[in-house]
Structure formats: C-alpha cells, structure tokens
Amino acid sequence: MSNSEISKVLKSLYNNLVNEIDIQRGGSLDDSSQRLGDAVKAAVKDVYNEYCDPSDRIN
C-alpha cells in the first residue's frame, strides 16, 4: 500500500470518527467515553499526518 492509499484510508476513518463522536452523538457520551473518543481521533489524526502530503495535514 502506498502512502497515498494509507492516507486516504486514515482520512476516511478520521472523518467517520468525527462524524460519529462529535456530530451524531452531540454530547450524549459520558465523560470517559468522550475522552476515549477524543484520544482515538487524536491518534488517527497523528498517524494520518505522518503519511499525508504536508499540505493536507489535519490541524
């Protein structure tokens, strides 16, 4: 798998996590579940930023 393919998969995963955790749940998660979700999103974002083009980084 190329870096481009890996970054596409990671970007899709990150967007799905944001959609599910931040948008769909809209604050209905308890604190520990929200922290876990935020940690998973941060980890996926960090790995994505390693594989993507510098201009495509998630801030």
UniProtKB/TrEMBL annotation:
This is Uncharacterized protein. It comes from the Bacteria.
